[in-house]
Amino acid sequence: MAVDPRGADLKRYLADDPGGPVTMLNLLRFREGGRELYARYAAALEETFLPRYGGEVLYAGDGATPLVAEDGQAWDAVALVRYPSREEFSRMVADEDYQKVTQWRTDALEEAVLQATAEWPARA
After folding, report:
1. Quick one: pLDDT band at residue 124, thresholds 50, 70, 90?
2. Which of 32, 48, 65, 123 is deepest in the core (most CB within 10 A)?
3. DSSP H or E segment with residue 8
4. CB 13, CB 85: distance < 8 Å
């Protein structure tokens, strides 16, 4: 299972850009022992890379018993991370320093979903 975006994924992500901020939905399933590696990655992300690229963690937490889900759709953890733009997120993942720590994320995860979301327009 893929856990990291590839070049073609990032090109499509940028081509579909509606503009404005983006909140990335992260659904995470850890390998055995992966939580500790992911914690190292998350600390580096919050201390260095989110401030550098204007990102912020809106929510991060452990998964719990799903109320509505098929078998295999439960996740170990969920995070919502907001960036000022898709371009800033892309710049972050291309950053040489980020590339040095992202291996911790890769090694920590058995499966992941990383999905861009767009805020719904305000209701009248």
Report:
1. low
2. 48
3. helix 7-15
4. no
Q: What is the pTM of this model?
A: 0.90
CB–CB of 93/47 below 8 Å? no
Domains of the chain: 7-63+74-117 (3.30.70.100)
Which phi and psi angles does 111 have, rounded to 5°?
-155, 150
CA distance 109 to 30: 4
Residue 27: strand pairing partners: 78, 113
Give me the residue label for tokens 């719904």.
120
Structure tokens at 30: 């850890």
Residue 69's identity, in one-letter code, is: A
Tokens linked to 35: 């939580």
One-character DSSP codes across 42-83: HHHIIIIIHHHHT-EEEEEEE----SS--TT---SEEEEEEE
